[in-house]
Fold:
Amino acid sequence: MTNRRTFLAGGLAATVFGGATRSDGAREAEPRRVILVTLDGLRWQEVFRGADAELMERTGGNAAAAESIRATFWNDSPEQRRRILMPFVWEVVARRGQLLGDRDRGDEVVLTNGLKFSYPGYNEMLTGAADPRINSNQKIPNPNRNVLEWLHGRPGLTGRVAAFCSWDVFPFILNRERSGLPVQAGWEPIAGEPVDPRRATINALYEGLHREWDNNVYDALTFESALAHLEAEDPRVIYVAVGETDEHAHHDRYDFYLRAARRADAQIRRLWEASEANPAWRGRTSLILTTDHGRGEGRLWTSHGQNIEGAEFIWIGLLGPGIEPRGADAPAVRATQAQIAATVAALAGEDLRSDVPQAAPPLVEAVGAAR
Ligand SMILES: [Zn+2]
Structure:
């Protein structure tokens, strides 16, 4: 089952992890579920090292907040610190799956769009290639076909792919109008589905809450909408894009940024456990976690973009059948953001590159799946 080889992708050596269970005939015909979650602008530094001692003072001058996050997030051991920040990522994803992008152990997971901000990153990640035409965060319909849209058009997957996004630019990034992909984004309430009491309550919160940001809904609402959909609608592929980490970072509130990351970790655990609790999907669900861009170092941590050194480095988490844990002495990994699109398809049992040859190769081999 371990089937590891390397090849060149976009000038970088990419490690291919063992395909799911191709040799396991009993599994061959079973459909797969994929949960993709992105945490906007969450740095690899926090994912692999936990809270940063110097940045912990950056709480908008609020000394009590600084003291409070030190008490919550600090530990002298980086291994302990990262587990305090993201317990699900470290106790489940890293232990049972793979976590790529730790520069301290030599990994290099990079975006190739060169712009190091959101729309170019999501475009690269979701379409499988950087595109120089995507050079702003404006609400411009994406000319490129994305992997979710592609999967939505595959036999057995139509009507079983959906996206839930905190940022209101996603209907354009995913070109909802052209693609027909169900996308709920920003402060839009849940629509187009029979609204049960649970989702009616969620919609009441979309309507009733104070709006800290007009263009970004609270991540809790995005996660809650996605979880309700996961449990009621039996999707095969679900994308959850949250953004509070980036909002708080731009405002130099390291305390809010850390807390947003920890809340997201807990919500990702809920999505995973809800899927694993379903006998139809237990052992057949894969999870991919990643981000659209990195950020600067030191006091430049608030920033990202073309001129911010280091903001090209990202991280990827993979969990699911056939993704074997990475040993401590496993070789360093080089991978690109563009590889995520074909990886999402492969984990769903589909080969994106059979139809979209310009997409970067997947990080895992395609798995057999029922049509
Ligand atoms: Zn940003």
Remarks:
- Residues 254-276 form the longest helix (23 residues).
